[in-house]
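Please go through this protein, sequence plus structure tokens, and consider how the sequence yields the tokens. Keep your notes short.
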Amino acid sequence: MKLREVRKHQNLSVPELSRRSGVSVRTIEDLERRGDGRVSTLIKLADALHVTLDALCRD
């Protein structure tokens, strides 16, 4: 998963992405560490980052 890469490329902190997406900081941190999560959560993050789900999840 490219969540951390995309977030950092957009110069966003985890708390800022949390505010934009409505996903908790802990969940974002867990996703960046583990690399898997619920599709509904990933869609919220992709929308907040203005990228496709495919761009966020494919390595």
About this structure: The chain has a mean pLDDT of 95.
